[in-house]
Amino acid sequence: MALSITLGARTWIERLWSGIADRGRPYADVPGAATPPLDRARLLAMALLSERGEASGAAVARELLQVLGTLEAGDRAAFRHFLAGNFLPDQESLRAAAEAYLAEPSAERAMALFECAEPPRQELLRRMNMAPGGTAALVALRTELLAGLKREPALKPLDSDLRHLFTSWFNRGFLELRRIDWDTPAAILEKLIRYEAVHEIQGWEDLRRRLAPDRRCFGFFHRALPGEPLIFVEVALVKGLAGAIQPLLALSRDPAPQPPAGFDTAIFYSISNCQEGLRGISFGNFLIKQVVEELKADLPGLKHFSTLSPVPGFRRWLKRRLDRDGQALTPEERGALAALLPPAQEESVAEAGPLSTAALLEQVAEGEWWRDPAREAALRGPLMRLAAEYLTRPNTGMGNIDPVARFHLGNGARLERINWLGNTAPRGLEESHGVMVNYLYDPDSIEANHEAFTRSGTVARSAAVEAMLAQPRLPAPATGGARARLPRLLGGSGGAPEPAAPAPPPRENAAS
Amino acid sequence: MALSITLGARTWIERLWSGIADRGRPYADVPGAATPPLDRARLLAMALLSERGEASGAAVARELLQVLGTLEAGDRAAFRHFLAGNFLPDQESLRAAAEAYLAEPSAERAMALFECAEPPRQELLRRMNMAPGGTAALVALRTELLAGLKREPALKPLDSDLRHLFTSWFNRGFLELRRIDWDTPAAILEKLIRYEAVHEIQGWEDLRRRLAPDRRCFGFFHRALPGEPLIFVEVALVKGLAGAIQPLLALSRDPAPQPPAGFDTAIFYSISNCQEGLRGISFGNFLIKQVVEELKADLPGLKHFSTLSPVPGFRRWLKRRLDRDGQALTPEERGALAALLPPAQEESVAEAGPLSTAALLEQVAEGEWWRDPAREAALRGPLMRLAAEYLTRPNTGMGNIDPVARFHLGNGARLERINWLGNTAPRGLEESHGVMVNYLYDPDSIEANHEAFTRSGTVARSAAVEAMLAQPRLPAPATGGARARLPRLLGGSGGAPEPAAPAPPPRENAAS
Amino acid sequence: MALSITLGARTWIERLWSGIADRGRPYADVPGAATPPLDRARLLAMALLSERGEASGAAVARELLQVLGTLEAGDRAAFRHFLAGNFLPDQESLRAAAEAYLAEPSAERAMALFECAEPPRQELLRRMNMAPGGTAALVALRTELLAGLKREPALKPLDSDLRHLFTSWFNRGFLELRRIDWDTPAAILEKLIRYEAVHEIQGWEDLRRRLAPDRRCFGFFHRALPGEPLIFVEVALVKGLAGAIQPLLALSRDPAPQPPAGFDTAIFYSISNCQEGLRGISFGNFLIKQVVEELKADLPGLKHFSTLSPVPGFRRWLKRRLDRDGQALTPEERGALAALLPPAQEESVAEAGPLSTAALLEQVAEGEWWRDPAREAALRGPLMRLAAEYLTRPNTGMGNIDPVARFHLGNGARLERINWLGNTAPRGLEESHGVMVNYLYDPDSIEANHEAFTRSGTVARSAAVEAMLAQPRLPAPATGGARARLPRLLGGSGGAPEPAAPAPPPRENAAS
Amino acid sequence: MALSITLGARTWIERLWSGIADRGRPYADVPGAATPPLDRARLLAMALLSERGEASGAAVARELLQVLGTLEAGDRAAFRHFLAGNFLPDQESLRAAAEAYLAEPSAERAMALFECAEPPRQELLRRMNMAPGGTAALVALRTELLAGLKREPALKPLDSDLRHLFTSWFNRGFLELRRIDWDTPAAILEKLIRYEAVHEIQGWEDLRRRLAPDRRCFGFFHRALPGEPLIFVEVALVKGLAGAIQPLLALSRDPAPQPPAGFDTAIFYSISNCQEGLRGISFGNFLIKQVVEELKADLPGLKHFSTLSPVPGFRRWLKRRLDRDGQALTPEERGALAALLPPAQEESVAEAGPLSTAALLEQVAEGEWWRDPAREAALRGPLMRLAAEYLTRPNTGMGNIDPVARFHLGNGARLERINWLGNTAPRGLEESHGVMVNYLYDPDSIEANHEAFTRSGTVARSAAVEAMLAQPRLPAPATGGARARLPRLLGGSGGAPEPAAPAPPPRENAAS
Asked: Which segments carry the region annotation Disordered (chains A, B, C, D) (predicted)?
């Protein structure tokens, strides 16, 4: 295989070389200091795949990386395009292999076809990786690439190759799980502050709180990216399921707070990916499960392992839901909400026609509504019921599901509890009217949950969540495709079938 | 890409599952303890690629590894065939992708073809790697596989996939260079004793000598194979090029011998690969070059970096050479050798016809001939000249070159010196009449040497070696294809062109 | 020896035991949980010196430490008095040994006397040290003890024993020098913030600046106090002697500032002791000298090693100096200062009589005077000259010397340069009108400097400092005891000989 | 205190200096290269206590150590005498302090006396310790010193000071317990081979066996002696008390033998001190107890912790016992032994008079008697009974007890079981007719056992051992001082009271 790749690469490269040589740069001074950096980078990349690369690959790779480090943004972009547009499989060989396979689709010919089809670019990237810092440079390359990928589809092959290599290199078997605590080097800790994506860390005092004795933090690391967490998770040791995030984040007067007496639950309250260049390489699933194992071994008193997670898509979904189905709220619920609006406002609104249910709810749920007992009481019932509806809709694989839910349910967790006023920070209110969710990781049911979710879209849920769905309400909201459409009584906007919410990007980056 | 692989795998696996299910093993109890181990292994391998594998890959992989650990040799062989014969790319998808490519050979379609052609087996192997000890298990799998690969070509696809993965995983960028000395854990040191392939280590005393202060030893390690050197090299610090191995190996009365005053040369006198299962994954090249860098930084007084290497193919080649070309020795040389045989022997030989040159030389070079000044003197001239001839023949890429020479010349080293009586141990005499070689690693010429060797087969050599070739001798032996064939004068065996020596397996395992 | 100590201890302890037993606590339940903690601590201390302590010293010590950890402040004080007032040498044995020595003062009898005189308390403290955390507990014990030692002379014997043990335990040979940087665990770094005694660290950003690539930080650690620096020093890599502290402390926009090109000097700008309980155990001397060695080896370009140090006693001394010697300033100097005061002020002052030189200078040197070119110019000459005078007065061993000067001069450093406006922070102005000093550590002259300083009180100084002293001024200030006293011309307060300044406590804590 | 020592030292040293200076060596060139090494060592030692030592103690100490490293044996001896004979407390100060104390024996004066009595030599040794390798050099100094201490009592003060310092420095709180296994550096492992004092390690294979998974090995280390174990213990994990050593030492075919199923007992079968220079500093006691804690935590299945120990003094004691008390054996026992001798031998013996019981037993117990069932049967009863007698004799503190027994009983262990044919190796037969002993460490009774042993000499023993003593035998041997002496019936050699066996040196070095 190595041979065919090399030959393919050589053929192709010879053409490239000669093209460049025609422009007057003789072979010998390829890496000459006078060559403009971008050209030097290109030539070094070619050299890396040539005999020179075989003889002293690590040295050439190091030189290439140094040059890349000096390129301006524009040149870096040009280099990405150079990589993406060249280093393709040899066309003739591939054509021959494809024809051979079609003539006789044997295992051997499939294998030969695979080997011919592998782009020499992968070998080039592997050789770039030989230099010290190579992996970090390639991850950085993909970070920049991803930022513009939508605008530049021509880079897709390069992204595809990088992703293919990273999947192999960052295999679970090569990751090291490390506990992170106050004895961890500051150079790593400051990265937690930078990378935390769910509940921002406000500084070193806040960080210290999250690494106190009643907390745990673990991350995956890879030997080739020393000092760089790939992903990390923050855990609180508590008694019973924690339903609200603010108490967990609050600073403590005690400089070293201990877990509460009789603590039995580990709450995974934040999980953050750190390396944008590794997007799409899955770590979160493994991390949570291994941390569960570690905690069990270390703290035998722990009985429950659960997240305390945001519901980032709820409020957006809810608006559409209410717009389309006036009966989403019962008349009593709607009435209770309407009663909370000041008469003046009601009036001015009345002039503009009847207030839609969605708008009504939005108006009630403004500002710090949750500090007002009347509003809080009026909103609680409908919001909790609709959150349960939102979160238990079957997974059709087409993105109609909350991204955090999809992550945890896809991992085999169970929708355990929906928490009222779980997150009263602006972001929590903004995203989900403050609702938070516990996804429970129960080792005994993880596989079955995952399989049911993947195969038939079924959302595993606790009896309590089930009960929220079954609340007597007339007419009951039917979930799933079999739901009967009923005439809207009040402010409804029509009976069109609800479309799948536009899928938010798979945000593992802020997964819990 | 992940999607297409998964789908392909799924289709294929569904058929496998159902076949097995038909035989009465319902899905649910797949990993049941009552299932025979081989079947359990097969089912777990399938499960690993299924949704179960997605949900709890590490757990399934761990279970599979445990089962594999209990299999008898026959079952292990069967499992290898199971892996090699299944987990192929989905035939329909691949056919479609091949046709699409042929219809329009664009970069996108080449990429799609590559992705379809990747056998799901690679994903399976990657998932097996997720369990603790996974990498070691896969290396062991390939070790067993290679032992029978010639007899069992059906295993080639599995070998090909393993090699593809290992090439990626054991990329230079992921290897850790470690110094090995007397402070290294005994568990690693005993592996040096086991793996040393060039000059056997006789026990702990011998080992201690090789790790003394006037020696250096370095190895490559990989995080996923803790405690296992992949390759290691032994170095002696000396003054001037060392030409004989016995003084380097001799035990010392001094428990901690220091380098000689004014030492200026690092002699790489042994390099051994340790992991048969990683055969074909190149480490030696990188190791030597990085150790040169390390030594330079650590010991600025070092000026020369050279091997002291065996010539394993010389004696075998020499016999054929003499058989085919009676003039390989001058009449004077032949006469001098003949004069050393006892008359009786000569006589009995005479009855059987004239003694061939090859046989004559072999008879003189018997036993401890090198202790006999007359024999030593008579053999020295012709053997040294012919060794130079042997080692400088151009590399045709078809295995006609000494394997150790090919390794170092291919790395860009230069044939620096040929040493008479370099190794008088039985193996040295057996392989090369005691001749040893210094290959010099000169950073400034490595790339040029490598390129000349790879492109045109030219062997870089010192002036001294060149001079050995130029010795006035009539008729001069022509090297290479243009060599004139001359009538044999004495005991020649005919004029057939010399065939390439049957290539010994590329023995990096005993490279220096 | 061990025997005699033990016997002595036993005799004494038996009396103690019986006294306590009389009060109704039988031996068996000595460490009973019902016993009040202070009594438990006392009984455990006794048990530790008894056979129980021999059998299971570590266990008893651990128990004792746990009890001590629970004591209230009052009980802890009582326990200190218990330790200090008991565990004395056996009176009869000591008397006998003293008499024997006086009868025949042989080496053997001196040795026997020494052994009898060692208080069993030392053995008790050594046994307390056997428990995990024992050393830390003993250091904490002394910290509390020192806080009240002046009020409670009865504790002196306990302090003496602790200091004796610590001197032995914290011997230089048992200390580990460690570099501290941004890769150091946060748990240690936060202690730098807490312990920094010279130039306060304002938080993590400030700390990060001090650990940047153009800085070095080293500390001594001891195995028995893990995670606790004993002392640390902060160093800046600069070009030429740095004369002002503000530029060194200023934050940098560059997240990783490198040393300036051609840097040749290491400036020790802060050295802080961390453990109050180790007061009087000398580390600073060793630390500076070893850091010099480390830096030399690591950065061969460094040529000079110097402090940038405060002069904490200058301003106080100056006031007295001016009060006592009206001629300390020349008439021109005094006139220049007086000209700077606003007329009104001068007037009101005039009513109260002529302004003393000291008061005049203080009034000119108020607020941010150094931003006013006129004031700055008028003050510079006299202050610099008098600072030189202050710093070069011979050391009489009676505390008349600046404590920081004494520390560095006693270490063998040389008074290299006096810096005008070296520290314009409030503390710098308050202590020394902003003057700072470079003490130079020149390995070649350290011993001679030290010896001259220790034997004859001579202050090693550079030619530049010498020149400042020699400024033509009439009448010239004579240094040393032979100084002639001259009539005061202006505002002088009389000719009494200058008394030694009351010695400030030997503040190594803020040494540089 | 530091002050008074220094002053004392200075006075004394001044005299020394001047003595040497008189001989023509001016102060300035004290450490001159031309000075003979021994004189250089002496002068450097003095310099170390002088101001030079204060200024650059570590440097002077380093120089002194280097010189010491070059001294011949004779010069080293002379240097030891130099140390021992000088550096005494200042006679005048000490006399004054002694008189002051006698006049008023207050705590303050006792403290002052102690401080005056401390020989400056201790400060000198502490300063020698400041250099790298200082501790090792001082331990080596004492090793050599101890070898000749009996012949050279003048060295006692030096030994006393070293021991005093080592006791403080090697306090339990400063020792690090480390597990030693096959992953330990070879440089440490080879020291186990060298230092093992109980059951010789035959080489690396044997060592590997002792570090296998069914074994444990732990040692104490000290930071200042890196790579040097101070003491180590070897442990076997077994089921039930192991009674014989050969099965534990036997090599195993299994390269990694696991503990037996249901293992519940840790057998401490060898404990060896490593540093002769630390003789008398107790480690064994702490080591065993901490290893018990470690094993408990690591292997909760362990229920029993016991030694399998030699009885080095039994055979020697037994001879004397039989010589003095003809009735030590019953007539039946004696008859049974006599019947085993060949008639011829009996006869020749008869001529020489009746064979003594001691001689009879020795003749029967010759060679590999234990392979002969008849001899083995005849010897078992009397030897086991007398071994029990030997081991349970009360401890009078005067060395009449087996040294290994004294070590373990003194640690609070219980004499649990006496094992027949416990060690059939030559040394075992030679020392104790093959008898071995289990001393049980039962945490709950350790303190009481120790106290009873120390206070009243009582040997804690199991019921089984007690029963062996109570065997009906006429006349019964009385244990302890109250034992009645009876007339000898057969071959007795008289009724003199049995003297205490000459105490073997307290051999912790081969304790178990």
From this structure: 475-512
Could you tell me if D204 lies within 8 Å of chain B, comparing CB atoms? yes
**Contact call for C185 and A183, based on CB within 8 A:** yes
Catalytic residue numbers of D read 309, 408
B414-419 and B436-440 as β-strands: parallel, antiparallel, unpaired?
antiparallel
Cβ of A186 under 8 Å from any chain C Cβ? yes
Give me the pLDDT at residue C371, please: 94
Q: Over 50: is that where the pLDDT of A8 sits?
A: no
Of the two residues D247 and B398, the one the predictor is more confident about is D247
Q: Is there a domain that residue A427 lies in? A: yes
Does residue D187 belong to the interface with chain B, where contact is any CB pair within 8 Å? yes
The A residues from 277 to 306 touching B (CB cutoff 8 Å) are 286, 289-290
Q: How far is CA C72 from the centre of its chain?
A: 29
Confidence of residue C491 (pLDDT cuts 50, 70, 90): very low
Residue A330: its pLDDT value, please? Answer: 87
Q: What does DSSP say about strands B175-179 and A436-440: parallel, antiparallel, or unpaired?
A: unpaired
pLDDT band for C496, please (50, 70, 90 cuts).
very low
Q: Please tell me which residue, A502 or C42, carries the higher pLDDT value.
A: C42
Mutate to test the interface with B, among D183, D184, D207 (most CBs of B within 10 A): D183
Q: What is the 3-state secondary structure (H, E, C) of C5-61?
A: HHHHHHHHHHHHHHHHHHCCCCHHHCCCCCCCHHHHHHHHHHHHHCHHHHHHHHHHH
Cα–Cα distance, D327 to D330 (Å, whole number): 6
Which residues of chain A from 227 to 266 reach within 8 Å of chain C, CB to CB?
Answer: 227
A32 & A62 share domain: yes
pLDDT in tens, A320-355: 988 888 788 888 888 899 888 876 665 555 555 667
pTM of the predicted protein model: 0.85
Q: Do A55 and B411 touch (CB under 8 A)?
A: yes
Number of neighbouring beta carbons within 10 Å of residue C62: 18
Which residues of chain C does D290 touch, with a Cβ-Cβ cutoff of 8 Å?
58
Q: Please give the structure tokens belonging to residue B129.
A: 């790697």
Instruction: Kindly report the nearest CA distance between residue A339 and chain C, in angstroms.
Output: 52
**Mean pLDDT to the nearest integer, D309-329:** 90
Q: C41 is in which domain, residue-wise?
A: 12-170
Residue B49 lies in a domain: yes
Asked if residue C503 is part of any domain, the answer here is no
Considering the domain architecture, whether residues A189 and A300 belong to the same structural domain is answered as yes
Separation CA D461–CA A475 (nearest Å): 85
Amino acid identity for residue A98 in this structure: A
Query: Do the chains contact at B51 and A156, CB–CB below 8 Å?
Result: no
User: Is C63 a member of any domain?
Assistant: yes
Looking at CA atoms only, how far is residue B497 from chain A in angstroms? 29
Same domain, C281 and C297: yes
Encode B200-216 in three state secondary structure. Answer: CCCCHHHHHHHCCCCEE
Based on the residue annotation, tell me whether A4 is a catalytic residue of this protein: no
Question: Which of the following is catalytic: C93, C272, C309, C512?
Answer: C309
Mean pLDDT rounded to a whole number for chain C = 83
Claim to verify: residue D126 and residue D179 sit in the same structural domain = no
Indicate which residue of C408, C432, C433, C512 is catalytic: C408
pLDDT tens digits, A123-167: 999 999 999 999 999 999 999 999 999 999 999 999 999 999 999
Per the annotation, the verdict on B270 as an active-site residue is no
User: C206 and C319: one domain?
Assistant: no
Mean pLDDT of chain B: 83
CA–CA separation, C314 and D2 (whole Å): 29
Q: Taking 60 as the threshold, does the pLDDT of residue C22 lie above it?
A: no
Note whether A189 contacts C: Cβ–Cβ < 8 A. yes
Domains of chain C: total: 3
Task: Give the distance from residue A184's alpha carbon to the nearest chain C alpha carbon, in angstroms.
Answer: 5
Highest mean pLDDT among A179-183, A333-337, D12-16, D474-478: A179-183
Nearest to C204 among A183, A204, A227 (CB): A204
Q: Output A311 or C452, whichever has higher pLDDT.
A: A311
Q: Does B186 sit within 8 Å of D187, measured CB to CB?
A: no
